[in-house]
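HUMAN: I'm a chemist; might I ask for a sequence paired with its structure tokens?

ASSISTANT:
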Amino acid sequence: MHTVTSIHSKQDYEDVLREASSYFENEPEPGFVEGQRFEMLMSLIEDYEVSEFDSASAHKAAQT
């Protein structure tokens, strides 16, 4: 497990998604290290998706 502070590329995004998906099979307890890591990963994923997918939608809308 390496320290992730942000997602800068599609590869970073895929790596973080892969790690986060492992927690869905065995959800960690909130308040423990694993639970904190899971929450941080989900926050990074949400921030990236809002940034990337909202930008893509806005760009598509501007082209029409």
The chain has a mean pLDDT of 85. The chain has one domain: 10-63. Residues 10-63 form one domain.
